[in-house]
Task: structure prediction
Amino acid sequence: MPVLVASDLDRTLIYSAAALALTMPDARAPRLLCVEVHESRPLSYMTETAAQLLTDLGDTAVFVPTTTRTRKQYQRINLPGPAPAYAICANGGHILVDGVTDRDWHARVLARLADECAPLSEVQEHLLRTADPVWVRKHRIAEDLFAYLVVERELLNEEWVKELAAWAENRGWTVSLQGRKIYAVPKPLTKSAAVREVARRTGADLTLAAGDSLLDADLLLAADRGWRPGHGELADADWTAPAIRALPERGVLAGERILREFLRTVRSPA
Result:
């Protein structure tokens, strides 16, 4: 029976220059591989060692990139190793099969959101009306499923984020602050639901997962075993669960450690 490995990408396996956390002396810094270019500029990295680990993992397990990114944002990432047969984008709103959207899955997601949550238009209007232009740089809608803001973190009013979370809670939505982005996401739009569907299709009897943000908590709880790095929302909240291991590593070296844990477990699941 195959092992399914579902992992968040940003700040879990791949890292922007600002998130690398290279605290060692320069001469001891790991060699880096660029895995994403945007507008002709390098954007995301992993260590060369992590790249080899991911290649090995793709040869021995069903590796499923599981991201809040839109499909367009995901498809500009060039991960090493075999091309994943499945990928999960838009926080579970889309399952890609060999790079192509599964329309039946997406239709099921839309039907559930319509039944259980306030409409995206209401959330978008609230964000436009209440977010202060002093610290908001961009308003964005992702795949017509959820909204996010790009903000100046140093100027951000943290109390506003708490008030937004309380407002959203009453409307079936959740709020997550990740770096310079504030996400407002419908509660039923989850990575875990999409991962369960991929596990069903592949016949996987063991699911491993990793993630760093509050939007990854449901993914980790749905897995048989999971790991989180020493940075991110989950680490800041000291979040854990019985089958979750909190790793001490931070930054790009955490991504390398997570891949080592995945590969070790795939090879010796007992």
In short: The chain has a mean pLDDT of 96. The longest strand covers residues 32-38.
